[in-house]
Amino acid sequence: MERHFGVDRTILLAIWSMESNYGAALENPERLHNVPQALATLAWADPKRSNYAKKQLLAALEILQEGDVAPKQLTGSWAGAMGHTQFIPTSYLLYAVDADGNGKRDIWHSVPDALATSANLLAKNGWTTGKTWGYEAVLPAGAARYAGQTKTLAQWAALGFARPNGKGFPRGSDRATLKLMAGAEGPAFLMTSNFFTIKKYNAADSYALAVGLLADEIAGYGGMQQSWPRPAGTLDIKEKFELQHRMKALGYYDGEVDGNFGSGSKAAISAIQQRLGMQQSGEPSRTLLNALR
Ligand SMILES: [Ca+2]
């Protein structure tokens, strides 16, 4: 797939992870709506999404007409995102690929078809083979005013930008846009053209950054080096895991240790807060974690 479309396998894995947790999310009844029914409902009942839903409904019917999938198997989210890589019907019609050669473009059951469809979308929207999506950089003092500007990596380096590991930027003639997604106190990012191609999949900067960082981790380059600023007293993801581990060890919590604080975690926190004579918010906090340490 990497050879055929020229899109890195790590990027495709990261998209698959983000879209459906490698297919696991497709077991969730929330993702198993009949797509024409869901879109017809939206078109009728949701004035804000009516135009979108009508267009997608017609595209969904076209998919059925082309015979790639049986009507009962045309499942997706309430808004019509379908299969392992969560394509909406119009995107499916533009990019779907039969990679396993069985004659059907089946992004619901065939992982090769789904990943090839994503690769095809990126390739057709200008993915540059063999290049990264961008670089995490340390923001030099006073350089926040350049946010949103585009310069060559060599020009950014001349302004004092460097990678957190101190290494320079390869391919200095490539152009990159400075994004300060966590504000001037957080890590800076110099985004090259492939970042903007990932945004063709989902237009949110945060989505494209998450795909890029996850792809780098999968490739063994490590994740983000600098910390993301967060409100004082709140926990990062490692601390959230630690808090759940500690609550479990103390017998207050018997759910998954997954960093997600649902009703089980909240009940456990409230019980511990009560025991410690703290105010019962049910919310994870640094104060609570320190108390358990
Ligand atoms: Ca197929």
Overview of this protein structure:
By secondary structure, the protein is α+β, with helices and mostly antiparallel strands. It folds into 3 domains: 2-124, Helicase, Ruva Protein, domain 3, CATH 1.10.8; 134-218, no CATH class; 237-292, Muramoyl-pentapeptide Carboxypeptidase, domain 1 (Orthogonal Bundle), CATH 1.10.101.10. It is 42% helix and 7% strand. The radius of gyration is 23 Å and the shape is globular. The model has no long low-confidence stretch (mean pLDDT 94). Bound molecules: calcium ion (CA). Calcium ion binds next to loops. Calcium ion is lined by residues 98, 100, 102, 104, 106, 110, 113.
CATH architecture descriptor text of the largest domain? Orthogonal Bundle
Q: What do we call the CATH topology of the largest domain? A: Helicase, Ruva Protein, domain 3
Mean pLDDT value:
94
Give the C-level CATH assignment of the largest domain. Mainly Alpha
The number of distinct structural domains comes to: 3
Order of helices and strands: HHEHHEHHEEHEEHHHHH
Give the gist of this structure.
This protein has 293 residues and is of the alpha+beta class.
